[in-house]
Amino acid sequence: NAASITLDLTSFLQVDSVKQRNIHIPFSQPADAVQINFPSPVNSGTIDSVSIYYQGAPANTGFGSFIQTTHNAIPVIWTLSEPYGARDWWPCKNGLDDKADSIDVYITSPVAYKAASNGLLQSETPVDGGTKIKAHWKHRYPIASYLVCFAVTNFSVFNNSVQVGTTNLPMVTYCYPENLTDFQNGTQNVLDALQLFSNYFGEYPFIKEKYGHTQFGWGGGMEHTTVSFMTAGNNGAYSRSLIAHEMGHQWFGDKVTCGSWKDIWLNEGFATYLASMTIEFLDGDAAFINNKNSMITSITSSTSGAIYMTDDEALNVNRIFSSRLSYNKGAMVLNMLRFKLGDTNFFQGLRNYLSDPALAYGYALTPNLKAHLEAASGLSLTEFFNDWVYNQGYPIYNVNAQTVAPGQVRITLNQTQSDPSVSFFELPVPVRLTGAGGLQQDYVLDNTTNGQQFLVNVPFTPTGVEFNPKKDIISKNSTATLAANAFEFEATATIYPNPATDELNIVVPQNQLLESVSLYNALGQKIGTYTSEKMTLTGLSAGMYSAEII
Q1: Which of 65, 314, 539, 543 could form a disulfide with 261 if both were Cys (CB 3.0 to 4.6 A apart)?
Q2: How far is CA 77 from CA 124, 126, 423, in A?
Q3: Kind of pairing between the strands at 167-175 and 257-258
Q4: DSSP at 345
Q5: How far apart are alpha carbons 86 and 225 in whole angstroms?
Q6: How far apart are CA 130 and CA 428, in angstroms?
Q7: Packing angle between helix 265-283 and helix 285-299, nearest 10 degrees?
Q8: How far apart are CA 500 and CA 176, in angstroms?
Q9: How many angstroms from the chain centroid is the CA of residue 79?
Q10: How far apart (Å, rounded) are the C-alpha atoms in residues 319 and 487?
Q11: How does DSSP classify residue 389?
C-alpha cells in the first residue's frame, strides 16, 4: 500500500500539475524527482493512474537524451536516453530494476512530418484542422525506461519483411529523404542478421510487433526496443557491423537487460560479439580472425582495466561505454567462453539464459550468465570470471616447442601477466605446429600452471610453431619458438651388424651413455638384459628379436 510515489524527473523541467482520475492532487519536486502524494493510500495490487503535466527544456545529459536540431535544413527531434537520460524528458522509473509492462506514445507534429517510436503504429490522425498529425504508437512488451524513444522529422518511410520461423516479421524504416538510398541498400544486411540471430539465440524477442530502423543525428546507433536509431552516410556509416550490433541488442540488452550499469558488458559485449559472429558466418574465418585481432589490439592497448566496474566508475558515462572494455573486451571474453565450452554448450547456455523466466523481459547480472553457462557445460567458471570479468589485464605467453622423438613434440608454456590483479590465467591455449609444404596441426593445451609441459603427436616434421593462430584468446607480446630437436635421427643409438649371428654391437652418440639393452623375442618375452656395448648372442635361436635401448 502506498500513500505516495516518487518518479525520476530532471529539475530542469517544471511540473505544473498532477491529476489522479482527473482530480488535482498534491505533489512536490525534490532534486531530479517528482513526488506525488495520494489523498488516500492506494492499495497494493490496485490498478490506478496519474497524469503529470510539465514543461521546460530537457537537460540533454549523457549522449543527448533529447535533441532538437536540423538535417539538410529541416527540423528534427530525436531522443537517446541511455544511460540516465530518460528522466531528462519524461517522468519515469529511471533505474535498472523495474520495467514498464507496456507503453503508448502519442506524438503531435506538423502534418509535413512523421513520428517514429517503439512498437507498432496504431494510427496517424489529422488534428487542428489538418495542420497537424497525431501519431499513436503501442508497445506491449516490458521495456526499460532508457529504451523508450521517439523521433520526428520529414522521414521517408519504407517497409520490408523477413521470415523468422513461421512469422513474417515487418521491417519498417524511417530515414531522412537525402539518405534513402543508403538505408534501402542496407536492407538485406538487416534481414540476414535477423535470420542468423533467430537461429542461434531463439525467436526474435518482439515477434508480435516489428523490427525497424529510424535515422537520427548521433554518430552511431542506439538499440531502442523494436526500433534501432541509426546514423547513415559519411562513407558507409550505415554499416553491416552497426546493423548487426544494434539488432543483437534486441536479445541482449532489450529482452534481457543488464541489471546495473556495472554489468553493461551483458549488453555491449554481447552486441559487439554478435556483430563479430555476423562476419564469421557471412564472410568466413579469415575475416573473423581479422576482426578478433582488431579487438585484441584495442583491449591490450592498456595493460589494465576490468570489464566489471566499481560504483564510482558506473557514474561515468564514458567509462560505462568504454569501447576497449565494455565492448571489445566483453566481446572477446565471450569468444573465449565459446572456445572453452565449445559451440554446443556455449549457445545452449545462452538460449537458456535468454529464456529463463526470472530473466526474460527483465534484468540480469553477471552471476546469472555465469550460472547458465556452468549448467550447460558442467564446468566451474569461477576462476575464469574472476580473472577475465572482475580483475584486470591479460596473459603474455612464451611458447617453446621441441621435437623429443620421431613424431613427438614437447610444448612448454610459460606465462606472465600484464596486471598484478591476476596471478595466473587458467586457459585453453591454442598452438599450431607447421611443416614443409603448408602442413599444419592445431592443438588446444589446457594450461593450468606456469611452466606446464605437453607432449603431443605430430604427423610431420615440424618447421615452425604459432601461438593463438585464430586469435581465440586475449594476449599481447607473446612469443613462440621451435627449439633445436632434442632427438636427432643421425644421433640415435645404432645396432650392427643386422642381421647378426654371434655378436651385436651398440653404438651410442658421444654425448650419451648406454644404461641397458633388453632383448625380446617375437612373442614379446624378455630373454636377456645387457649393459655392455658388445652383446654375445651365443645360445639364441634363429629368429626376429626386438631391442630396447636405454
Answers
A1: 314
A2: 18, 20, 51
A3: unpaired
A4: H
A5: 14
A6: 67
A7: 150
A8: 93
A9: 26
A10: 54
A11: I
CA distance 295 to 299: 6
User: In this predicted structure, what is the pLDDT of residue 533?
Assistant: 86
- Three state DSSP letters for 26-77: CEECCCCEEEEEEEEEECCCCCCCEEEEEEECCCCCCCCCEEEEEECCEEEE
- Which of 86, 79, 14, 4 minimizes the C-alpha distance to 53? 14
Instruction: Encode 236-266: b = buried (16+ Cβ within 10 Å), e = exposed.
Output: eebbbebbbbbbbbbbbbbbbbbbbbbbbbb
Asked if 54 and 87 count as a contact pair (C-beta separation under 8 A), the reply is: no
What is d(CA 347, CA 40) in angstroms, rounded to the nearest whole number?
51
Strand partners, 415: 397
Residues contacting 231, CB < 8 A, separation 6+: 215, 216, 217, 218, 219, 220, 221, 237, 238, 242
Query: How far apart, in whole angstroms, are the C-alpha atoms of residue 242 and residue 398?
Result: 36
pLDDT tops 50 at residue 490? no
Residues near 367 by Cβ (< 8 Å), separated by ≥ 6?
A: none
What single DSSP character describes residue 310? P
Reported as type and span, the H/E element at residue 335 is helix 330-341
Q: What is the pTM of this model?
A: 0.87
Burial of 112 (0-12, 13-18, 19+ CB in 10 A): exposed
Compute the distance between CA of residue 483 and CA of residue 465 in angstroms, rounded to an integer.
Answer: 10
Q: Do 165 and 208 contact (CB within 8 A), yes or no?
A: no
pLDDT digits (tens, 9 = 90+) for 118-158: 999 999 999 999 999 999 999 999 999 999 999 999 999 99
Of the listed ranges 69-78, 347-356, 498-507, the least confidently predicted one is: 498-507
How many Å apart are CA 274 and CA 196, to the nearest integer? 10
pLDDT at residue number 502: 85
